[in-house]
Design goal:
The chain is built from 8 helices and 14 strands. The strands form 3 sheets. The protein has a 7-stranded mixed β-sheet, with helices on both faces. A 5-stranded mixed β-sheet has the order 1-2-7-5-6, with helices on one face. Helix 2 runs parallel beside helix 3 and helix 5 runs antiparallel to helix 8.
């Protein structure tokens, strides 16, 4: 691919089709080595090497502080959730900060206290890290990078009694089977719409608050019930991107009922006003599950018992007779739920 004269755009890192193309065309050819049980080229939320689950995230959210969290809480939660999504249990975190010269100590302390609170609540410590400071003209706000290592979840093996056509013993994107039910752990679009509201000064009415949360309780409940084939946290690109990745990698279709998708009223109103589909907006405290039909209702009940899964719903199923992702609308029609080019709200994580 000839890239002469091309420059990186915001959409290249926004979690949609353009980022997918950048990774596949420019990054994977240089770094793919096919090492490990779940290697880099599978493009799952984490990788597996010798039973060690490993992931890394850089966070550039703007604004740094928002209702429901800050870059510190976001960094720790997002990295923990990536480990969980593959069927791992997070063990320890490494954290790196790049700070602009002149940044207030008071703000730095708020960031670090937020991160430390999540570590204490989950029992996942920060064991190592790094800090750099650059000139005030080189960076507008702190950048935080977190990496996490984990082990195979103690409850994961029980999920494969109903394995059927599953291709992997981890919760990979390619594991969906026809007949599986799709469950979301709660309302969608909360984080992205909160960031947009605070960044642009929109006065949306309602309980505007990010959903940033570590989803250990949700995954413990789901895996403890069994029948989970795949899990994914729908961050950049939201539910639309997550489901399309699943459909493409598993070579199946997914049909979703619009009326079943949990959305807060203020998120719906904000999306209508701004012309933004909440299903394409990132989340930072939700998990999407593909579950064997015989276990789906029980998984839903158990997830709803958790603090972070009270609003969980079954929203659709995996099918063989469609391609991609189809949304059954409230009025009985159908439309294709396309993967976004990029997240419509940049710098949400």
């Amino acid at each position: 691919m000839n890239t002469d004269g091309r420059r990186i755009s915001l959409e290249d890192g926004a979690g949609g089709e353009l980022m997918d193309k950048l990774i596949k065309d420019e990054i994977l050819p240089l770094f793919c080595c096919s090492r490990g049980e779940i290697p880099l080229e599978h493009l799952d939320d984490s990788a597996v090497l010798d039973e060690l689950v490993f992931t890394i995230d850089s966070h550039t959210v703007k604004p740094i502080f928002f209702r429901g969290g800050n870059i510190g809480t976001l960094s720790i939660c997002g990295t923990i959730n990536d480990i969980l999504a593959l069927g791992g249990e997070p063990v320890a975190i490494a954290s790196a900060l790049v700070l602009p010269e002149g940044y207030p100590y008071e703000n730095l302390k708020r960031i670090l206290k937020g991160a430390a609170a999540i570590c204490e609540a989950t029992g996942v410590p920060v064991l190592t890290g790094d800090t750099k400071v650059v000139g005030r003209d080189d960076l507008d706000e702190p950048v935080m990078t977190t990496s996490c290592v984990g082990r195979r979840h103690r409850l994961l093996d029980g999920n494969f009694e109903l394995a059927g056509g599953r291709r992997d013993r981890w919760l990979c994107d390619r594991n969906l089977n026809v007949g599986d039910k799709i469950i979301v752990s709660g309302t969608l679009g909360d984080h992205g719409m909160t960031i947009l509201s605070e960044r642009e000064g929109y006065g949306f009415q309602g309980d505007i608050r990010s959903d940033v949360a570590p989803l250990i309780d949700v995954m413990d409940a789901a895996l403890g019930t069994g029948g989970v084939a795949a899990a994914k946290d729908p961050t950049r690109g939201g539910l639309a991107n997550a489901l399309n990745e699943w459909a493409r990698k598993s070579e199946v279709g997914i049909v979703v009922d619009e009326i079943s998708i949990p959305l807060k009223p203020w998120v719906v109103s904000a999306g209508e006003m701004l012309g933004i589909d909440p299903l394409s907006v990132g989340n930072e405290g939700k998990m999407v599950l593909s579950v064997h039909p015989s276990k789906a209702q029980k998984v839903l009940e158990e997830v709803r018992r958790t603090d972070n899964g009270r609003d969980a719903e079954i929203i659709g199923e995996v099918v063989a007779d469609v391609k991609g992702v189809v949304l059954r609308t409230e009025v009985g029609g159908k439309r294709i739920l396309e993967p976004p080019i990029g997240d419509p709200v940049p710098r949400i994580c």
